[in-house]
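USER: Please consider what follows.
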Amino acid sequence: MEIETKDGFVLVGDFYPSKVRDKKMPLVFMLHSINGKSADWGDLPKKIASQGNNVFALDMRGHGRSVYNINFRYVSRSYLKPKMWLKFPNDTVETINFLKEHYSMVDYDHVIFVGADLGANTAILAGRNLKPEPDKMILISPTQKFKGLHTPLVLSEYEKTKFYIIATETDRYFMLQAKTLDKFIQTQSTLKLYPKGGSGTLLLKQSKDVSDDIIKFVYEE
C-alpha cells in the first residue's frame, strides 16, 4: 500500500486485515527501528492479526520501500535533513487518516501502537495527535530524544493510554532511558526488562518471549 504525504513523499506499508467480519476490530500500528524496515517485525504482524485485530506495518520515511517522493526522486534515510525526521509523527497520523478513508471496517477509536527505538519515539508523538488517545502503546527501547523527537513531556500528557515499555538489562543505555521515561507516565505503565538481548526490533529476533509478551499485552483487557 502506498500513501502520499502532504509534502509529496510516498510511504509504503502492509495492511493485515482482521478475519473478524461481524464487527469492527482495533488497529495495531507498527513502527520499526532506525535503519530498519517493516519486514524486521518478522511474522509478528500476522500473528497479531490472526487473533482478530487489524495490523498496519509502515516503512517509515527514508527506510525500506519508503525512499521515493512523487517525482521519483530517491531519498533514503542517509540523506534526510534534521527537519525531515520531525515529520515522522505526522507521517504516521497521515497514514492512519488514509486508512480511515479506505478501510471502513476498522475501529479507529481503538488504536494500539508498537514502536521500536525511532519508531517508539515516533509513536509517542503521533499518539498525542489522535482523538481519542491510543488504547495502548508498546515501546521497545524508547529514548528521551531521538533525531529531535523529544518524548518526556509528551508522555506526561497522556491521560488514558496504557504503556508497556521494553528494554534489556545488557543494553545499559536503553535500560536507563526506559526507566527514566517510565517515571514520566501518569497512566498505567509496565516496564519489562529482559535479562539479555539487543535493542529495538533486534530484540525480537533474539528472544521469542518478546513477541509473545507483545501479543499478550495487545489482547489483554
User: Anything to note?
Assistant: The helical segments are 44-50, 82-85, 88-102, 118-127, 152-157, 172-184, 202-206, 208-219. The chain has a mean pLDDT of 96. The chain has one domain: 2-219. Residues 88-102 form the longest helix (15 residues).
